[in-house]
Amino acid sequence: MKFDMGSTTLSDLGKSTLGSTDDLGTLIQQLIAAAEPLEGKFNGTGKVAFDSFKLRADEITGALNGSLSSILGGQSGMDVAFGTGDQEQGDNAHQNMGAANFDGARFSG
Predict the structure, then answer these.
(1) What's the CA angle centered on 72, arms 71 and 76, to 5 degrees?
(2) Which three-class secondary structure state does DSSP give residue 101?
(3) Are residues 86 and 7 in contact, defined by beta-carbon separation less than 8 angstroms?
(4) What does each C-alpha distance from 48 to 26, 41, 56, 106 come to in angstroms?
(5) Is the pTM of this model over 0.70?
(6) Where do the domains of the chain lie?
């Protein structure tokens, strides 16, 4: 199995995810506004759930944004880890090449 990823993949992903935080809050507020015409049309458990959602919209937005922030932290950590691993791999290759006896591998007489 081959794993191939560009050097900027995770940082690019982090940048696009960062903008999603604002988008998410806006979408939840739009959902609440779109549901306004339904207010008063529910009875029983449906009304309780609808009212609870409206009252907890800020809490829900905060929880979702907190989760998104954790995802961003994970992406950032992976980006650092991959970058460090790439650098270490290059350093190790150069160190091993310096210690190799290339003259001993010549096949000419």
Answers:
(1) 120
(2) coil
(3) yes
(4) 24, 12, 12, 82
(5) no
(6) 24-65
